[in-house]
Amino acid sequence: MRVESIHIYPVKATAPIDLASANVELAGLRDDRRWAVVDPQGVRLNATKHDRLLTATATPDESGALTLTAPGQTPLAVAVPVGGREVPVNVSRLPTVVDAGDEAGDWFSRLLGEPVRLVWQDDPARRPISQQHGGLGAEPLSLADTGPLLLTTTSSLAQLEAWIADEHEPQTMAMRRFRPNVVVDGSDVPFAEDEWRGFHIGDVPYRFAEHCDRCVVTTIDPLTLAHGKEPIRTLARHRKWEGKTWFGIRIIPLAAGKVSVGDEVTFGNLKT
């Protein structure tokens, strides 16, 4: 089994950046979900209610600064707001983040048609992974929901598409609906990743954190923004337990390093 693709989402809920390789940090892939869009009360926005976020692309440079682009919007360069104004947010285990400034806030406000702000997480170590989601106490977390990296496999997606075709009309489910960081190809067994606990991707060791429960964001076509019933309808028939539907696993890196397309996934004793 090998890595087929790698993706980051520098601003949470925006379009993916596809990479040939990425630096792995303890909090996840470098530049992944270090920024977010919040409302005036500091509530972090998601694509469920603000699907136009999916049309925005935030491309980082080597410093972590962003270039924002979206249809109908003038591109905007946003510097990393080091030393900027701290603002309160409604994010678990993280009381404050850093405001990215009026220009960035206005850019996203025009995109979404309501007043919002762009904010930046200065230090993932300030937000440990919850023990309820597989954390061991002090492992850092970005502005991702619960885990540093999300891993999916092409064999599981193929099985899902086969279920849909058998029970409804054939439909292609783009993997980007599931917003993974690492996609693995070459497994003969759909959903084999459910049982993965300790493994390496390339030279970097990882451990399993939890299975990933899926929300209605996956029912939005990320390119057309059309809303539908799949894949939640079919996942609910085949992959539902504890009242939730499941696809992919959240994993935690045990050391820093690098991940590249083509890296092999290996199992055995972890070396950190």
What's the short story on this structure?
The chain has helices at about 100-110, 155-165, 230-240, and strands at about 1-10, 15-20, 20-25, 30, 35-40, 55-60, 65-70, 75-80, 85-90, 95-100, 115-120, 150-155, 180-185, 200, 205-215, 240, 245-255, 255-260, 265. It is mainly β and about 270 residues long. The mean pLDDT is about 95.
Give me the secondary-structure topology:
Elements: E1 2-8, E2 17-19, E3 21-25, E4 28-29, E5 35-38, E6 57-60, E7 66-69, E8 76-78, E9 86-91, E10 94-99, H1 102-112, E11 117-120, E12 149-153, H2 154-167, E13 182-185, E14 198-201, E15 204-213, H3 232-238, E16 240-241, E17 244-253, E18 257-260, E19 265-267
Parallel strand pairs: 12-13
Antiparallel strand pairs: 1-2, 1-13, 3-4, 3-18, 5-11, 6-7, 7-8, 9-10, 10-11, 12-17, 14-15, 14-19, 15-17, 16-17
